[in-house]
Design brief:
Maf protein; 206 residues; 6 helices; 9 strands; alpha+beta; 27% strand; seven-stranded mixed sheet
């Protein structure tokens, strides 16, 4: 696929999302949002009381996009479509965020071991009179992980910037017995659903 006549803004720091957009020929400019609690955050990604995983991931994706769209206006930058996204891992109705340390990562992986969990990725698009989103849900089944395997994986850099303490595009691919859903969605950006949103903003792929 080759983008013919549009360039977008991507409101995300995720290297996986950048990789997937480049894969389908989408040109983009990064709009990075602050996420360091010590310096202040642009979008609060804390869970709200009683918020379901679906409501959570949808809210965060939409708020990221809305904030980035307002930034464009404040900076008087060219108004192009703004794409934002958020991914979360959930099991037993509980959200598993990004682990802060090896103990948290190990606890998450122990919980996922031998079971099926869900990966939710919500994608939002803001542009002129458009503010739409779509959420893709995948079921992922892990094989049974030994304590030694979990410890070895937690000694790598992989778990610590990813929801649920793993990334499907890395060593954790060895843990996955079965997927029902979208491989790219589990990575952080469901390509099919994202393309549908971008087409609504006039982005051409052929």
């Amino acid at each position: 696929m080759k983008l013919l006549d549009k360039k977008i803004y991507l409101a995300s720091k995720s290297p996986r999302r950048r990789e997937l957009l480049r894969l389908v020929g989408v040109e983009f400019e990064l709009l990075n949002l602050r996420s360091d609690p010590a310096r202040g955050v642009d979008v609060n990604e804390d869970e709200r009381p009683g918020e379901s995983p679906l409501d959570y991931v949808t809210r965060v994706a939409l708020e990221k996009g809305a904030f980035a769209w307002n930034v464009l206006h404040m900076r008087r930058q060219p108004l192009r479509p703004v794409l934002s996204a958020d991914t979360t891992v959930t099991i037993d109705g509980q959200i598993l965020g990004k682990p802060a340390n090896p103990d948290e990562a190990a606890a998450m992986l122990e919980r996922l071991s031998g079971r099926t969990h869900q990966v939710l990725t919500s994608v939002a698009l803001h542009h002129t009179d458009i503010a739409e989103h779509v959420t893709q849900v995948s079921n992922v089944r892990f094989t049974k992980l030994s304590p030694a395997t979990i410890k070895a994986y937690c000694a790598t850099p992989e778990p610590y910037d990813k929801a649920g303490a793993y990334g499907i595009q890395g060593l954790a691919a060895l843990f996955i017995e079965h997927i029902e859903g979208s491989h790219s969605g589990i990575m952080g950006l469901p390509v099919f659903e994202t393309a549908q949103l971008l087409r609504k903003a006039g982005v051409q792929f052929f």
